[in-house]
Amino acid sequence: MATTPLPATTETGPPPARSVLRDTAFLRLWAGTTASGLATWALPFVLGLAVLHRELGAAGLGLVLAARTAGFLAAVAVGGVLADRHSRRAVVLWSALAAAAAAPLLALGLGRSLLVMTLAAALAGAGQGACRPAFQALTAEVVAADHRQQANAAMTMAVRTSTLAGPTLTALLAAFVDVGTLLLGIGLLWLVAALLPGRGAPVAGSAAPAPRASLRAEFVDGIREARRHPWFLAGLGALTAVIALGYSATGVALPLISRDRYGTGWVMAAAMTAYTLGALGGALVTARRRPRSQGWSAFAGLALYGFAPLSLMLPVHPAVVIAAYVVAGVGIELFNVPWFTATQREVAPDKLARVSSLDFLLSYGLAPVGLALIAPAIGAFGVTPVLAVCAAACFLVPAAAALAPTARHFGRTPGPRAH
């Protein structure tokens, strides 16, 4: 097993003078990631338009979206293993091409065959799932270590911009083209994601041929690597709890409270927009910010999401809810960017994609479980007690995770890295 590099410094010095945005290789990777993000966020919106146009029923929409989620979860672990076993650039290429191929199949099945649409959605989800750990590991290959925090901030800004621009651009295009054409456009975005990124630097130790274990054995090896980093296990547990409880609770409660307490849907729309804008601001901050205790700072940022469910518990002015969502958005990127950067720095390079796949597998995989449980809980106990429990979890679980060994600096001990 490859040894894990010694942790890097706490990065309290000045950030690198040269911007990563002047690096052509990174710009190609960033553009490909942005295209995949736009395609990912646009698809549910386009399928929603199909329901409005009576080309797809509500039950069919649920089935198609569930198939996409199932495809994602099935492929993300396999994609992580393949990205460590083979060229990460090749995994990005073939997984994005699979997602691109799913788009015309979705258009073909629209209004004709729900089975074809369901299978195509599963293929699209699989392509998206296999891409994610490969993109994460490819960033570490393309970008030098001292530029990675800035690069990860730029990546997350692309994701947040996609959440705003994807549905908006789709709505504008829907005035001129039909749903089938929009689905083909999503396929073109996946083609850009497949073809635009360049090849990264070779992974250390990967050039020499060696007998390969099974996919399962290599995935288990990735789990072993993750277990060697207490800060990673603690952070993954905290992130999963915040997503499964905090995100799920607010996802269910915000529409209800916007309708019943405020009598309008604009509070929900404003809160979600505020969250995305806050996340963009948080990414800008973390691009330049180098706190002394990086891990503690990140966990504090993650805990800020607790203000979102907290703001929904009491009959406060809508401005308070919107402000709470801004704070939550800032906080989530104060966690995400250092988290990704530390994972790229601390995890053994030849196991990075597998460890990253664990992140996506648990955080994305348990989110539907949280959504499935929160709604019945609200029906049984009421919205306020459920929100109180979820807010407490958002505050307390990251605080407990910050007490784990090596959590303070997202590494074993602060000090110079061995080369």
Description:
The protein is mostly helical and 419 residues long. It is built from 14 helices and no strands.
Furnish the topology, listing elements before pairings.
Layout: H1 24-52, H2 58-85, H3 88-109, H4 114-142, H5 148-173, H6 179-195, H7 215-227, H8 230-260, H9 266-288, H10 294-303, H11 307-311, H12 318-346, H13 352-381, H14 383-401
Helix pairs in contact: 1-4, 1-5, 1-6, 2-3, 2-4, 2-7, 2-13, 3-4, 3-6, 4-13, 5-9, 5-12, 7-13, 8-10, 8-13, 8-14, 9-12, 10-12, 10-14, 13-14
Structural class: mainly alpha
Indicate the proportion of strand residues. under 5%
**Low-confidence runs (pLDDT<50, min 5 residues)?**
1-17, 205-209, 413-419
Describe the main β-sheet briefly. none
Count the strands?
0
Q: What is the end-to-end distance?
A: 18 Å
How many helix segments?
Answer: 14
What is the H/E string? Answer: HHHHHHHHHHHHHH
Mean pLDDT level: 85
Shape: globular
What integer value in Å does the Rg equal? 21 Å
Helix percent band: over 70%
Task: Give short descriptive properties of this protein.
419 residues, mainly alpha, 14 helices, 74% helix, globular, disordered C terminus
Can you describe this structure in just a few lines?
With 419 residues, the protein is mostly helical.
